[in-house]
Every structure is written in structure tokens, then in C-alpha cells.
Amino acid sequence: MSHDAMSDRYVIISPGRNEAAFLRRTLDSVIAQTRRPDLWVIVDDGSTDASPRILQEYAARHDWIRVVRRTDRGSRSVGPGVIEAFYQGLELVTLSDYEFVCKLDLDLDLPPRYFELLIDRMRAEPRLGTCSGKAYFPGPANSSKDFRGELISEKIGDEVSVGASKFYRVACFNQIGGFVRQVMWDGIDCHRCRQLGWIACSWDDPELRFIHLRPMGTSDKGYLRGRFRWGYGQYFMGTSPLYMAASAAYRMTRPPLIIGGLAMMWGYAASLVSRKPKYNDTDFRRFVRRSQIRSLLVGKARAAAEAHAAGAAVWNPSAPAIKHPI
User: Fold this and answer.
1) Most buried of 14, 117, 201, 248 (most Cβ within 10 A)?
2) Region 90-107: what's the mean pLDDT?
3) What CA–CA distances, in Å, run from 35 to 38, 153, 202, 216?
């Protein structure tokens, strides 16, 4: 397929398990998009609730929705399990037929122009490799059916695309080697983008804000387990102890107050003491640590802007794809 023929074509791949409580909300919000996906592959990761029935209902009505069912492994597997399910869906896609690819969670409510606007911004900036809007979750005043009350920002930095909605230029996705099949896949990818000269970002514009119907990090046995896992992920990626301490201190100010940040630090320290494996690329880990120290000195926004400016000299979208060293 020629470049012109595939211009603006995008495919969504959505891994999910037991999402019946939120699934219709996500399906309806994608169907309502002003620029719908050309293909949406939904990987049902062994759901034991009503998810399979709901998915089949929607797939029967929309020929651009394709459902794949995985065997029930008996429990939710975040991190590696989610990415394995994503790649099972990707195997069914000829990625070269598309300009963009999105990994999308099944517990989101997207604004109607979400993908239209992301594509417009991708077209305006050739170096923009991955992007997203910002995630908000319902506050206590909201009921399960009415989210007109308080919405709380998940406070994800502008220098990353949000893991629940990773919108990628296919050329960038291929060049960074895709997602690593490990916890912190959604941090490693954005650092790798900048290392190769691509821009990674997210915007808090009102028309790009989406609702995360289940707050980040709570899908597998609650907040504390999620924050502990996050601490391990930071260790795996190569985060320095100093930056980890600063990050954990900041997270103490976000729900759940205090204990969330402590759980992150515990996960990091436990991994350090037990000498768990790290992402096996010394140059990458050095790049991450330099970026983090710069962020502590001048702030994330300025550090990311400096990295993006420096990346112009190394950006080569035709360079060979890297391979993850694990």
C-alpha cells in the first residue's frame, strides 16, 4: 500500500480482562469518534465476566471491530501479561498498512475528537513519535453512571504518552523495537523515543482529556500492589535512587496519600536488595539517568524540551529498528 493510500489510517489494539463494568463506555466512545479506527483488534485475555458477550455483540454490529479470545490464565497479569496480549493482537495486523497504531485500554471514556486531533498533531510535527491526551479519574462525588462531578488528574508528565492510550506513528513504534514485555514498558518506550530523536508527549487540552474509569495502578489487587510494582518497574528501567526518592515523595501527595509513595519506594528498595534483573542496555540506562538528573535540576518540562531539541541531530526515521536486549 502506498504512503498516500494509507495516510491517516490507524489501528487500535486493546488487551483487556474482565472489563464488563467499563467496556460499553469504552466501545461507545470509540464508535462515536469523528475519525474512527480502520481496524480495532480487541484481545479478550481470558475474561470470566460478561466481557466476551459484550464484545461479540459490538463486533456483530461493526465490521471494523475484531475480537480475539485468549485462554484464561486464572488471574489478571499486568505489565508483561498486558503486552503479551497486545502482541497477540498485533500478530493479526499488517502494520505496514497503517500510518498509526494505538494501544488502548478498555476502561476509558474518550472525547469524540480524540483521534482526529492526535492525527492532526502527528501530521503537523514529523518527529512526533507517540502522544496522548491526559487521563482523569472520577472523584468520590461521581456515581458509576454520571461523571459530571469532580474529575481528578492522574498527573502524568507532559514528556510521556499515557500508558492507557499509547498513540504511535508506526515508523517510530517499529524503530524503538515496540514495547518491552516487562513492567515499565510505558516508560521505557518514551525514553527510547527521545534517545532516537523522536518526540514523546501528552497534552492536557480539554478536548483531549479522557476519563480513566478505574484509576491507574488499581487493576491488580488495588493501589498498594500497583505502586509496589511501579517501584520495581523503575528499578528495572534503570532509575537512580535519588530520582526514585523524589518521585516517591511526589506520589505521596497523590491518592492514596503517603502510603502510595512508600509502596513505590518499598518496591524499588526490595528489587535493589534482591538484585533483580535490569533492562540489559547500559547506554539506555545511562541515558535515562542523565535525563532524570536533568529533570531534578531544571524541571521535567525544560529537561524534556532540551532532549527534544537535541534529538533533532540524531533523528533518522529510516534507521534500523533496535531490538530489546532481554
Assistant:
1) 14
2) 97
3) 9, 25, 19, 26
Q: What gap in Å lies between CA 107 and CA 86, rounded to an integer?
A: 15
Q: What distance in Å separates the CA atoms of residue 322 and residue 243, rounded to the nearest whole number? A: 27
Smallest CA-to-CA distance from 43 within 87, 74, 80 is with 87
Tell which residue, 283, 195, 293, 287, has the closest CA to residue 244: 293
Q: Are residues 104 and 133 in contact, defined by beta-carbon separation less than 8 angstroms?
A: no
Query: What would the grid cell of residue 52 be?
Result: 466476551
What value, to the nearest 5°, has the Cα angle with vertex 319 and ends 86 and 171? 35
Q: pLDDT tens-digit profile of 165-223?
A: 999 999 999 999 999 999 899 999 999 999 999 999 999 999 999 999 986 554 445 67
All structural domains of the chain, each given as residue ranges with its CATH number in brackets, are 3-212 (3.90.550.10), 223-311 (no CATH)
Radius of gyration over every alpha carbon of the chain, rounded to an integer in angstroms: 19
